[in-house]
Amino acid sequence: MLETIQITADYLRNQSKLNPTIGIILGTGLGGLVQEIDIEKSISYEEIPNFPVSTVEGHSGRLIFGTINNVPVLAMQGRFHYYEGYDMKEVTFPVRVMKQLGIETLIVSNASGGLNPDYAVGDIMVINDQINMFGDNPLMGKNINELGPRFPDMSEPYSKKFIAEALKIGKENDIDLKQGVYVGTTGPTFETPAEYKMFRILGADAVGMSTVPEVIVARHMEMQCFGISIITDSGVPGQIVEVSHEEVQEVAAAAEPKMTKVIKELVSRI
């Protein structure tokens, strides 16, 4: 794996003169942040050695070197999911490459189902913790000591400092930011009413099909993480209705400008 990571990192290092320390992963329907990036280089995933390819609608499949408010960033416009048939190491491979390129901070975004009855569709939730319900872990197997410890600490999966700063940005810009726990599942089915209820009992405020593996790997490599979810459908009893991927994308796109504002400001303050 080390050699594969190095080959990919070397290729990307030769594609741009920028040396970003902030990486951004944009989830379903949330690629609009790219419009706020002064793009220096855009690379299709198909062109990158050893990179998986995004197969899901709403994930453009581009890796972007650029700047936000003159701050160098490396952004993934589209991610990879366990339900696409990739294994956990493939899903998280880009995060490994980011670290090799010098990324120290990872910002992740996603579309998720709301479990907290105080949330409404279209709300934005800053993630303060997570629950892994994938039934798998990207660190399974022999540990590569050069990447991180065998038993990494997860007492602060999401940086408290970044959370506090994001909430401050929300207040300054009159953006109502919720704060809660994200539970990650395999998908690709949306949850049943009983599953929504179970996840709420477990302590989750939102549920989705991504993010958790990426954050586990980032923390394994001692990267600081910030996560943000757009609530695109409701899993609250009495509010559950039939939902489609297209509807999720529509809600995400409508709420995205507020999320973009928060991330843009946060990048400037990190």
Concise overview:
The protein has six helices and nine strands, in the order αββββαββαβαβαβα.
Average predicted confidence as pLDDT = 93
The main sheet comes to: 5 strands, mixed, barrel
Principal-axis shape? globular
Number of domains: 1
Uncertain residue segments: none
What spatial order of strands do you see in the largest sheet?
5-8-7-6-9
The CATH architecture is 3-Layer(aba) Sandwich
Strand content: 15-25%
How far is the first residue's CA from the last residue's CA? 30 Å
Radius of gyration: 17 Å
Give the helix proportion (percent range). Answer: 25-40%
What is the element string, with H for helices and E for strands? Answer: HEEEEHEEHEHEHEH
Number of strands: 9
